[in-house]
Structures are given as structure tokens and as C-alpha cells.
Amino acid sequence: MPRKKDTITLSIPPGTKEKLEAIARRLNILWGKDPSISGLIVAIAQHAVEVGKPFTLDFNQVNALQQAIKALNDAGQIGESQTVLTLLLERGNLDASIRQSLLKQASKLLQAWRSQIDEYRQKQQPFYLFYENSQGEELQYTVRYAEPRFFDKRYYLLIWCEETEDVKNSIPNLPELWHNRTLIFDRIRLIVPASGEWREGLDHLKVYLHFQGWMVKSYERREDDLEDETIGDVRQVVRRVVNEFWLIREVLRYRQDCVIVSPQSMRDRLKQELLAMCQLYDIETKS
Description:
Elements: H1 16-26, E1 30-31, E2 34-35, H2 37-45, H3 59-74, H4 78-91, H5 96-123, E3 127-132, E4 138-151, E5 154-161, H6 165-168, E6 180-183, E7 188-193, E8 205-211, H7 215-218, E9 225-231, E10 234-241, H8 244-254, E11 258-262, H9 264-280
Antiparallel strand pairs: 1-2, 3-4, 3-7, 4-5, 5-6, 8-10, 8-11, 9-10
Helix pairs in contact: 3-4, 4-5
């Protein structure tokens, strides 16, 4: 059944519609390819976006916070330094030269995390990692394996950690992947050494994919592909999967030309995504 929605009529001055559409486009609130004013209003009502101007910092305030960043770096408190720097970049009304300087500092901080993690990897040293996710939640992981990996035009940190509670509800049928995480470097807040043993690698699932149609010849072999052979009109690829998110994103992009054949748990995970999309677009499905 279609969902019931409230309807309102707005009286706005000339030119306001275009301004609202520009804001919606900037915030990536779209209906198809077009900016959605309705979506923008809903996002404001749900406090998903903030309205108003960011706070303005005068010269003395900016200078004081820059000195704080330097002091935190010198003290080895890279996570705290990153927090202050991100605050300046995201919330401050900065001129171009100061913003460029802070962006360079942010790059150096990310490299500092990379260097420290690379050192632990070489020593096979487990470590505690303190992380802030995209929802502002502070998480702690006991890391026993880590490796940087390139996805979607940026580097991520893949880890094997002891903690599982934060993902059990999101992927309950994939316990094989509960210990794996994909983290963003600039959300790391602190790293300190831990005791215990280092692992040899990440957990993984062996997933069978069938590419059809134009993808039989177009598919480019990946680093994690274990087998790749063409059988009749189907190209069968067996892949070592350590994170279900990236696999599902890829399969959805190829639509009907890529099918997850097994295991059933991964097929069910994709079905959940498809059913959720059907509900969003009021498509009725058989129970």
C-alpha cells in the first residue's frame, strides 16, 4: 500500500525556489538527478542538516586554535589535533589561504596515522584504536591485523578486531565477517599498543559471482579474485570477500548482469537491500 504523506503549500518570493534547489543540490538531496525541495524540508525537520551560517572566527581565535593544533602534535596527541583541525575546516569561516594551510596540515596528520600503523604492521604489534564513526559514535577496537586498501578513489584501513557487538545487528547472517572493519583514516582519534598475538590476515568469505551479458568480456579481474573462468555465456568469478558493503555496491551497479550465486547468506544480504529499495519506491513484493 502507498504510504500516506502530508502535503503543504508554500508561498515564497520570486527566486527563492532556485535558491532552495541550489541548497538541496549542494547537500546532495535529490529526487533522481534533480534537487528535491521536499527532501530538503524533511531533512531540516529531522535535524539531518543544520541551517544558518557557520560560526565566524576572528584572527585571534584562528591563531589560538592553530597554536593548539601545533601543541597537540608536539605532544603526540594526533587524534585531538585532528579533531580541532576538522572543527576549523568544517565550521569556521576561513579565508582561502588559511583553509589551504589547514588542508595541508590535515594531509600530514593522515600520513602520521599511516606511518604509525605501518610501523605496527611491520612489528606485528597489536594495538587499540579509538575511532569516531560517521554518526558521531566513539568506538574502541582491539586490532590484531590491519592493512590499507584502496576503494572508490581513496584509501581505507581494513582491520581484524576482537569486538563484534557494533555489527551483529547489521549483518546477523554473516558471522564470518563480524571481526572485519573498514575505517576512514581521518576518523581515527588515537592509537596505542596492546598485548597479545598478531593475526595473519582478515576473515573472509568465498563468494561465487556470475557475470552475464556485456560483463562477460567487460569485467576486469580484481586482486581478491581466486578463480575466473568463462563457461558458455557466463563468466564465473570466485572472490575472497572481506567486507560485504563493497561487494553489494558493485553487484547493484552491474544490475542484472551480475548475480551472487553463493553462499546463500550473501544472497540473502543482497535481497535485504533490494527489498528495502522496493519499499522506498512503493513497489509491492510477494511475501
